[in-house]
Amino acid sequence: MFSSLLKNTHLRLFDVTMRDGLQSIPKIYTLKEKMDMALDIVVHKNPSAIEIGSLASPKIVNQMKDSIELFKTFNSICGTHRQLDVYMLTPNYKSVEIASSNYVCNFSFVTSISDTFQKKNTNKNLIDTKKELKNMIHYVEKINDSKIKLYISCITECPIVGKFDIHIIMNEIMYYYYTHGEEVDELCLSDTCGTLRFQDFKFIIDNFNTNNVDINKFSLHLHQQKDKHVVKRIITYAMKNGISRFDVSYMPEIGGCSVTMKNTSGNIGYEDIYDCL
Predict the structure, then answer these.
(1) Alpha-carbon gap, residue 225 to 19, rounded angstroms
(2) pLDDT at 265
(3) Taking residues 255-265, what's their average pLDDT?
């Protein structure tokens, strides 16, 4: 049933359970437990892509310490799955080198609207992040059949400093679109706090349409909100305007910001997308 829905609607569902989900909880899963979970996701949910882990420092995100081992084991079983892209989150240039030396070819990069958040998350401000991103992208471009996903965090609120003016947000989004839109596979608008309002999202999408932006380059990373109607309106409006790529979780009750672990209430699930079809 789920597979036919995806085929008929051209949806691309990117499973973030193994990274954004697991990093948000205190329990440390064993490598076997993670492997069993990843295989369950592939068998029962059939996503288009899966983010298998992160090369963030284990001192900061201990849950991700065995991500390379997990990737190797998972890839040996599912690596020939023609419709499944396996991603690794690589927050800096060094981690890209480590990942590529272990045969990772699909990469998730992270930036933000918030300079404060970016410093806390990656120990770099946005100016330095933008410089490093160029080098990271150029490195990955040399890898055959590689894909890059660029998360743009804190749409429209930072968990540390609060709300941002919508015009500042729009300017930052457009910077990444015009600078890297042709180089990356997708630009992911990430509602880090789970507080994205429909009118703000509509403003962003309507500006895309006004400026003839290729909306197919964008995906959405949403979190659960108390008012589920808000999330449904956002997803429905996104689909109506041509966004077909969404981050989802096999375990929607978990997932969220690893920087502060506040103001988050879990990733959206597969059913949240299907309910909007």
Answers:
(1) 20
(2) 75
(3) 64
Query: DSSP letter at 269?
Result: B
**Rounded to the nearest 5 degrees, what angle is found at the Cα of 257, between the Cα atoms of 256 and 261?**
95
CB of 38 closer than 8 Å to CB of 18: yes
* Spacing of C-alpha 148 from chain mean position: 11
With H, G, I as helix, E, B as strand and everything else as coil, classify residue 103: coil
The whole-number average pLDDT for the span 123-143 is 97
Mean pLDDT over each residue of the chain, to the nearest integer: 92
What are the tokens at 167? 């015009």
Structure tokens at 252: 């929607």
What one-letter code names the amino acid at 141?
A: E
51 beta partners: 87
Residue 82 pLDDT level (bands cut at 50, 70, 90) = low
Torsion angle of alpha carbons 93, 99, 105, 107, nearest 10°? -50
What are 30's two structure tokens? 């064993």
Q: Which amino acid is at 2?
A: F
- pLDDT tens per residue, range 39-80: 999 999 999 999 999 999 988 899 999 999 999 999 998 876
Which CA distances in Å does 225 have to 42, 116, 162, 192, 230?
26, 24, 17, 12, 7
Q: Which of the two residues, 7 and 124, has the higher pLDDT score? A: 124
For residues 234 and 267, is the Cβ–Cβ distance under 8 A? no
Instruction: Show Cβ contacts of residue 237 under 8 Å, excluding neighbours closer than 6 positions.
Output: 198, 201, 202, 205
Q: Which two tokens stand for residue 183?
A: 């180089």
Please report, rounded to a whole number, the percentage of residues in the chain having pLDDT higher than 90.
84
Which of these, 68, 60, 56, 57, lies nearest to 31 by C-alpha position?
68
